[in-house]
Amino acid sequence: MAGFFAACAKPEGLHPAADYPLPGVERTMKTAGFWIARHPSPDAVILTPPEIEAFNRRIRSELKGAEDLTSFPDPYPGSRLRKTLQTALRKHQIRIFYLPDGSAAPPGFFESIEKAMNLEEIPERVTPRYGVTAKLVDQRVLPTHTGLFRSPGWRMFDRLQNSALDLGTPLIVLHESRCGGWLYAVSELCAGWVEASGIALCTPLEWESFLRPEAVVIACRAKVDVFLDRSGTVFYEHLRMGARLPATGADPDMASVLLPIRRPSGRLQALAGFVPSSAVHPGPLPFTARRVIQQAFEMLYEPYGWGGLDGEQDCSRFIQQIFATVGVHLPRNSADQARVGEPLEGFDAPLPASEKEQLIAAGAVGGAALLYMRGHIMLYLGSVDGRAYAIHNVWAYREPDATRDPIRIIGRVAVTDLRLGEGPGAGSWLDRLRAVRIVAPVAGAAIEDRPFNRPRVF
Fold this sequence. Notes:
Largest sheet: 6 strands, antiparallel
Low-confidence stretches: 1-13, 443-458
Number of strands: 24
CATH topology of the largest domain: endopeptidase fold (from Nostoc punctiforme)
Shape: globular
CATH class of the largest domain: Alpha Beta
Helix content: 10-25%
Number of helices: 10
Structural class: alpha+beta
Oligomer: single chain
CATH superfamily of the largest domain: endopeptidase domain like (from Nostoc punctiforme)
Distance between the termini: 8 Å
Mean pLDDT: 90
């Protein structure tokens, strides 16, 4: 949702908070059980493990937003890498951006970043290196901690924040900054600059133990504490929902895992770690509507974080985390997520809102349908009295007004009526809805490549 407000010059802190409860949302609607009870078959398996594996392969092969690291080019073409990095830099140089102090970013800002990118040292044939994240790390578009913003007063949306990577994420490292403090690395879901201090470099064999472990535990709570001792008193890091670590044993209280620790030399040291058994699952949960809805409500009221800022999640990362718990690896970007699975027949953006609502109620599946609008994505829960409801991580919405559409801040995971915001002006989520996709295989068909306008938002 953030994409609708990023050009507004008014500081986000001056916008009023949304009313609670949100209009149209009853108390009981804020529980998973309400929606599970309304579902016609909440325990029916949507995809079996072999079908999920095939589904994930299709996503990797047909969408640029997912990378198969097992078949990554070695050597990697230096010209391709150089062009990728230069494109990211030029994209920001040609627009007006603002620094955290409110001043416009001067040309010298980008000149210093270009120098730090060390582009002239990229060889024609890049030998990939292997690494694993040793903590939860930010992944940046450019190698700098300094944020860039579309307006001087709107600091929630740092346009250089690409994503955040959980502890234990396998990476392929292609380049390093001039000072060596940043590494340009590729994960299965996204690529960008990561602080070198957050990556433990390793051998291909060590890397494989995190990329394709024999057994895993998957985080099934919003945040799962990771400890260095079985008694749970020496805290190390936390996992976000959907993150996984290699499993080495389990007991009723604590599951033991393999932890990637970064030695002072920068190399990997794998040590034993422990996570609460009640907060993880040995491998994916069954892919049913009940499980997906339950996982979504584990995140209810969790804060919004653009691009994973401060260890939180935005709309697409919220969706990604939920489905990761059942083994479905969706792309990182909301526009790519809206191209996965089966389109709801007959749905089209120009349809009147009332017809969209009827089509959603008749054909969408609670817990398995994604609702997409430009720059935002939601999980469909079900319809009540003809009104469609979703759960999503949302920053704000516009409240209709006779003269203007004031922004009302939500800033967290919430259940909402899709009619919220309807009226003159910007319109409701339903008015702007562009696609409904069912997360299920499309028999005999490739993933559609619809001509969406695909901004770089999440």
